[in-house]
Amino acid sequence: MVRIRMTDIIPLIGIPEPKQGAIKYDIPCPCCDDKPKGKHLNINLELDVFRCPRCGFSGGVFDLYAFYSGVNRKNAREVLLARLDLRDGNRAATTVPRQKLLQPQSIDCPITDLDTRHETYTSLLSRLSLASDHRQNLLNRGLTDEMIQCLGYKTTPMVGTTILAKQLLSEGFYLSGVPGFYHNDEGQWTFIKNFRGILIPVRNHEGKIQGLQLRRDDVSKRKFRWVSSAGRQDGSKAECWTHLVGPPQETVIITEGPMKADVIYALTGQSVLAVPGVNSLNHLKATLKYLKENGTKQIMTAFDMDYLTNPHVTNGYRDLSSILATLGLPYGTFLWNPDHKGLDDYVWEYCYHQGS
After folding, report:
1. Domain spanning 6-102 has what CATH number?
2. Whole-angstrom Cα distance, residue 57 to residue 180?
């Protein structure tokens, strides 16, 4: 029996075609994507299936063809055999191993637009609280209660995450395509809860929350992690967004990590641009262009002092220097007593504790 593939019907129904070599790709869902950049319908070319995690629209080759062409689903195969001239078996049948067809597939959801993420994250954080030990940690860094409230830091929810997701959905917030949310084994939306720690909103130049970082408790390595639900059913992967705190100024500091940037700005009033790591510069160029177009004339880097001895960090710093040179932004480097790893630690110790 001739097998009709998803690649056979795509040219017939007028939907966007995949890039060469793609196994799966995303297009606007005809049932629920009402925004121009929405792409929630995942088409799997290897398994010949499609699914939208937002509205549940799903099926196989004949389902998709019937929807777009308007033919009856029962007649879709016969219609396609005729249109593709396959009635007499003009093409050898193709098969997929049975075990592969039966294997459940975990399909990540493409990340949704910024405004949707911002609205969902803002509502989520408004429902959470900040534990006393986390508040004290932030106060010890030099932040005040007013600053903490303004920044929106909260403690990760370790229970009731399914109820939180249900509340958000009932109020009209989208969870599909928002990193951190996914469908659990019972098919219910929920929020990731692997580690206890402080949730840190990562914001763009408009103050909109692009994603969340987590400062994990009781770990010595990789303390800061992105909140991501990649690899879980209908989950989404976080991107390495930059974080800008403060308005564009003639001189802007670049440092590593949004919490560090928030503390430096709170203590000095100097605008700070944070990258998630000196080796994670994917979104940096666009933010630097925005700063330059809005009056920034100089960049001062302020990475942890171990960049002087850590070759991995040194290579990332070289890449950063190349980007700044390409954009024509003069730059320099802040140096301080290496007994204090970060600029935030140094400023808090010498400018506030010692009053100098």
Report:
1. 3.90.580.10
2. 22
The token pair at 15 is 């939907």
Choosing among 3.40.50.1360, 3.40.50.790, 3.40.1360.10, 3.40.50.1820, the CATH entry for 243-353 is 3.40.1360.10
Distance, in Å, from the CA atom of 237 to the CA atom of 33, rounded to the nearest integer, reads: 20
Task: Please state the length of the chain.
Answer: 356
Least Cα distance to 106 among 164, 160, 53 occurs for 53
- Residues of the chain under the 50 pLDDT cut: 92-106, 355-356
Contact 81, 91 (CB under 8 A): no
What SS3 class is residue 202? strand
Unique residue bearing structure tokens 């196994």: 23
CB 155 within 8 A of CB 227: no
Write the CB contacts of 256 (distance below 8 Å, at least 6 apart in sequence).
274, 275, 276, 277, 278, 303, 304
Cα three-residue angle 270-271-276, rounded to 5 degrees = 125
Fold of the domain built from segment(s) 114-226: DNA primase DNAg catalytic core, N-terminal domain (3.90.980)
In 47-163, DSSP assigns E strands to: 49-51, 58-60, 154-155
Handedness of CA 216, 152, 268, 320 (dihedral sign): positive
pLDDT value of position 72: 92
Residue 145 identity (one-letter amino acid): D
* Residue 103 pLDDT: 43
Q: Could you state, in order of their start, the residue ranges of all structural domains in the chain?
A: 6-102, 114-226, 243-353
- Cα(303)–Cα(310) distance, rounded to whole angstroms? 12
- End-to-end alpha-carbon separation of the chain, Å? 83
* The pLDDT value given to residue 129: 97
Tell me the one-letter amino acid at 119: E
Query: How far is the C-alpha of 126 from the C-alpha of 154, rounded, in Å?
Result: 9
Strand duo 189-191 + 58-60: pairing: unpaired
